[in-house]
Amino acid sequence: MKEEIDMTELGEKIVTVLKTIYDPEIPVDIYELGLIYDVFVNEDREVKILMTLTTPNCPVAETLPLEVEDKVKTLEMVKDAEVEITFDPPWSQELMSEEAKLELGML
């Protein structure tokens, strides 16, 4: 039971870290933008993040995934982190949270 609580806590900490990373062209964090599709954590506390970019030729395509990996790896409970980029499904404004839409004046 304790392991399950730790995993929940770890998941929350990962989300907190993701909310500190911003797309440089949009003043909203990548989590609220809907760029994070899924976060997987195994028993060994290895994290895999499935994410997308706003466009395939996004100017931060090389640096943003590395920033995500590096920041998640700073968590004490994380042994390793890996980011996989996907464009299936492609990102769209519908993936943004209400908070992000409000921040960008879309509501």
TrEMBL record:
Q: Name one Pfam family in it.
A: FeS_assembly_P
Q: Which residues form the MIP18 family-like domain?
A: 12-85
Q: What is the name of this protein? A: SUF system Fe-S cluster assembly protein
Source organism of this protein record: Aequorivita echinoideorum
